[in-house]
Amino acid sequence: MTRMNKVADTHKDSVDSAPEYMVYRPFGPNIIHTKMSNKLVDALHGIFVKQSKKELAIGEDNQYGLAGNNKVEFFITEELLGSSTELLTNCLTGCASELYTSNIKANWAHQQKIVTPKHKEIVESHFKNIQLNVVILDVWGNVSVAGDFNPPHRHTAMISGVGYIKMPDDIEKEWLLEDHDPSSGMINFWDGRPALYGVHMHRAKPVVGDIYCFPAWLPHSVHPFRSKGERWSFSFNIDIANQNPDLELTEFEKAELRAERRRLLKELKNAE
């Protein structure tokens, strides 16, 4: 059986966020939120219907490879996806690429204020030629029932994410009945420690069709719910790299900056 493992090259003309993406930066790292197409949601829904009702073979079952305590956890493979493989590949590649470039943009927004004009010119020229290599390492489905949960954990790739296919029947009512901020079945992202004026936790309410991308090292957890029915989600791990420089400088470019600094120092000295 071939597991989901895809490599894609993505060219981006700009590091500006596309309108269909929303960048969350509640603390240090970015979290990307976007929507899956209805066609992709329907395709994955069909896979969940099939896999959740059968006895999984050893090569299909991912129960013991994950941190979660869920009813069923199974690998999502190219064989299962069939003609929908490209739909999922494009969705995950786009989300991961947006996370990568949004992080560059956030870092550069601060750095560009302190660099020399030549340095700014070089880096912004890099942004016109971003060529991302995206490797989808694995994708797996999670079927949760009342009482199931995911303890705080992290992943070992570069980028991870979660998408939602189905929610429990009465989850909206359950949220309304909670006597504090709703949490049942929700995902929490954790960063840092509780401190005055410091955000350390971000909670997201799952909605069918939603998908989130975040750094794989970011700890996250999922609260249990009590409602009847099942919660269907899928998770994934991705590695990503820019084949061209972005914020990093080549040796030739560093030499250009040294020459610029010498020129600027000479101008300062002549102005004295």
- Secondary structure tally: strands: 12
Q: Just give the CATH class.
A: Mainly Beta
Output mean pLDDT.
91
CATH architecture: Sandwich
Principal-axes geometry comes out as elongated
H and E order:
EEEHEHHHEEEHEEEEEH
Q: Separation of termini?
A: 74 Å
Provide the low-confidence segments as ranges.
Answer: none
Output the radius of gyration.
22 Å
Proportion of helical residues: 25-40%
Total number of distinct structural domains: 1
Describe the largest sheet.
8 strands, antiparallel
Q: The CATH topology is what? A: Jelly Rolls
Q: Beta-strand level of the residues, as a percent range?
A: 25-35%
Name the CATH superfamily classification. Answer: q2cbj1_9rhob like domain
SSE order and pairing:
Layout: E1 6-12, E2 22-24, E3 31-35, H1 38-52, E4 72-75, H2 78-81, H3 85-111, H4 117-126, E5 130-144, E6 150-153, E7 159-166, H5 171-177, E8 187-190, E9 201-204, E10 210-215, E11 220-222, E12 231-242, H6 251-271
Antiparallel strand pairs: 1-5, 2-3, 3-10, 4-5, 5-12, 6-11, 7-10, 7-12, 8-9, 8-11
Question: What does this 3D model show about the protein?
Answer:
This protein is an alpha+beta fold. It has a single domain (6-271), classed as Sandwich (Jelly Rolls). Strands 1, 2, 3, 4, 5, 7, 10 and 12 form an 8-stranded antiparallel sheet that branches. The chain has helices at 38-52, 78-81, 85-111, 117-126, 171-177, 251-271; strands at 6-12, 22-24, 31-35, 72-75, 130-144, 150-153, 159-166, 187-190, 201-204, 210-215, 220-222, 231-242. The protein is 31% helix and 28% strand. Strand 2 (22-24) and strand 3 form a beta hairpin. The model has no long low-confidence stretch (mean pLDDT 91).
